[in-house]
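user: can you give me the structure for this one chain? tokens are fine.
assistant: on it. calling the predictor now.
[tool input]
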Amino acid sequence: MRSLYGGTQLKLTSIPNGAPRSGGRVTHDDRTKRIIAAARTIFLKHGFDGASMDEVALNAGVSKRTVYNRFVSKEELFDEVARDACSQAFSFSVGIPEDAPIREYLTDLARCILESRLSRESIALLRNIAFRSPQMDSLASGYRTFGHDPVIEIASAYIHTQVEAGKLAKCDAGEAAQTFFSLVREPLESQILFGLSDTVNLNANIPRHARRAVDTFLAIYAAA
């Protein structure tokens, strides 16, 4: 397995005797789960550079040797943490059926996307992704796998169905899904990400921003 950190390519192949592996991946026994959970908290709070294996061991309630028996380096541990954090932070489910009116369905989808991305943990993760993903492949791939591609897949499939039904204008469903995703995220996500807006009124701002994004999307793609 290979990872990129700070421009240096690290080959992570040396595995200590007794490390609990299965098919090249860490098996998640209780102590491993505690290590990953502790590392995730520290990573989101301090970032990769500010995190230390000593602090991870202390917060996980295990010895430093136990940490290194499961992860041969700080880089390998945070590869695992990045995948775990992305899979949990960006998960969401749409609570409205696809046969609902288009505006209603898209507004609910937009709201779900925003709620998953603008939680305190997700914002901390997005900040790390923005500044560390060029050096940390696992963050970039984790974001694509859990934070980007599933949204595009859901939106694209729905848009294609509505185009075929004559309810949306003829278009490339993939491109329209990308447009929808961009309209949903911005400018609210960037404002919060860079500290230009606080999260005090987020519960009110999310539905309002979702409606505005859908209004703009339908102004572009609604069937004539």
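assistant: here you go. The beta strands are 2-5, 8-11, 21-22, 25-26. The domain at 28-72 is CATH 1.10.10.60 (Arc Repressor Mutant, subunit A).
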